Predict the structure.
Amino acid sequence: MEDPKLLNYLETFVSAKRLQRFEEVLHWRTRYLTVVMEDVYHQHNASAVIRSADIFGIQDVHLVEDRFSDRLDKKIALGAQKWTNIHKHSSTEECIKSLRGQGFSIIATTSKPEAKTIEQIPIDQKMAFVFGTEKEGLSEDALAKADELLHIPMVGFTESLNVSVAVAIVLHQITKKLHSSGQNWQLSKEEKAVIRADWIKKSIKNIDKIVARFQEGM
Amino acid sequence: MEDPKLLNYLETFVSAKRLQRFEEVLHWRTRYLTVVMEDVYHQHNASAVIRSADIFGIQDVHLVEDRFSDRLDKKIALGAQKWTNIHKHSSTEECIKSLRGQGFSIIATTSKPEAKTIEQIPIDQKMAFVFGTEKEGLSEDALAKADELLHIPMVGFTESLNVSVAVAIVLHQITKKLHSSGQNWQLSKEEKAVIRADWIKKSIKNIDKIVARFQEGM
């Protein structure tokens, strides 16, 4: 955890308006839900997914980078990912194992019509929604290891939704349901403090110099 | 309306499986809802919106092309728009006037939090959802002339959803509500027949030659 004196010092570099915004956003932030994306090929999809996560209050996004590892680093646009925690994994198996260890139910999104709809997914446990690549859909690993299969009903000729669109539909609907439920989905006071400190640092230009100056003055 | 003999002849060029698919898709098609997009700058957004319209069963998409008229023609990707009717308009004003004349309630999407949420929008009248450009949002014309203002609640730092994502969220939720309502949202028998004939023609390669051959044989 951050030195409280340093944090107090750093706060003086951030406007009151912005600090107020942090409180509002933290109020709605959750780690009860998370998103896992298997290899994402198109840049605008990866950045759109992170943007949707931020918009619907999801703090953590997990990216599996089996094949395009050099791509993603370069390609994720600056912006919303500054305010979310991006976790990188080298395989779907490892990612799922890690999330299950943290108590998440693994929900794989598919186009199979026998899968559950969003309304039918139980929300009494933390949920990790796993999305596949645009071209191939979810990997066998993800499908085999999932606790639940989810699909979004479609009634046209087109057989799949753009992945960033599918993520947004799921997050929009599930967060709405969660917010009106009795589940304990909000961040703890401690989690909020850590994230708030991170956001403060990310809001300050020349943060390294400012921290160094503070430490010299001690 | 199509010559029934020609139509019977053309049907012989389309597989039974495909004709069956047409019936399934027509069952869910609606003209009770439509989407209007003001100047859409990015190609992938325009094609993603048309794709979402197809996926959620919306037959008509309206595009207003004040400024980028040469862009859109070239830029809309082949695919889903084959199965939807794309209507082009030279101004938002003209488009809204025309839709209102057809009995549509005009619903403008905005980021204003005082606007209604999707659940609060009445569905007892045909609905046209108007979406603005990514950069500037809706035009003053659209906002001033709307019957209802709609917004999607957002709780993060990012202040706007990608337009194609916003369209998909709205269509997903409103079609779900409509399908479980008592509204008469389905196409009439006559409308289905016209659209079916159009799809049959679009499914046949060298349609012009085949129609010519039929007409010579008469």
Summary: The longest strand of chain A covers residues 33-37. DSSP finds nine helices and six strands in chain A.
